[in-house]
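Sample 3 of the quickstart, ligand zinc ion:
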Amino acid sequence: MRALFFDGLVLHLIDNYQQPQPEENEALIRVLMAGICGTDMEIMKGYKGFKGVPGHEFVGVVEKVSGGYSNLVGKRVVAEINLGCGVCELCARGQEKHCPERTALGISDKDGVFAEYVTLPLRNLWEVPSGVTDEQAVFTEPLAAAFEIVEQVHVKPTDRVLVLGDGKLGLLAALVLAIGGANVVLAGKHEEKLAIARQQRIVTKKVEKLSKKRAYEIVVEATGSASGIEVALDVVRPQGTIVLKSTVAEEKSIGLTRAVVDEVTLVGSRCGPFPPAIAALASGRVDVGPFLSAVYPFSEALKAFEKASEKEAVKVLLDFRKGR
Ligand SMILES: [Zn+2]
Ligand SMILES: [Zn+2]
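Result:
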């Protein structure tokens, strides 16, 4: 099969990569579309020391199932990206994303979706309703990560919430928080991306114009950079909450004394629940259409990666449906 392979240094488009075979209770999925994410760009810089097929945001069709649930064959699915061992205490509690033995699709020890086929455990799959397009469905995983914020933090309608970072996750987080009725401000560096948020009635600010008056009960740090937390500490209210969303290859030392003195709650936040994300896409409560920067056929995947590295790009998709 055709696949993008990262050898630890460079990305290659390969024609004869070995097609994976589903193990017991796994599905073989033909990828329809996949999204390039900030985490993929971090992997290219050495995040997690990953080698193999990257990619974790996708929609596909189940071609074959090994074990039960053959009714999934032919269905369009999206998938949670953490693969737990299935037997430890954390997995038993449904916290596979914290399983110490876990692998993660296209991120750690498991080939991802920048390939024509991928295998995944059946328990990771969610069927996509017919009203959700392939393009929309690719956003399920990052949208679920945005919904994780409201799973973790009680956002009151009177709260002033600042989302730092106008990348895809920041934009999605702002939309999800706005649904809940909070006063949301999105701060970023890129005028074109802030304009996308304003189209969706989100108040925006250039990050350099943020006043250091510490006005925000909740700050979501989604800048994708190691220094975002320092900005967050500048603007969060005493006894406020900072939700940390950036996973970056670069490690940076940060002075946290201010967090102690101001009794700031720091909440690490990663992958989130798929059902509210799928429901928000199906109902149209979250419109991801404006976030789509470009779609490339898979044969032009390397070009797509160049595009995704441009500052204005929000989301670049790879399309496997054409040219098969
Ligand atoms: Zn992602
Ligand atoms: Zn486990």
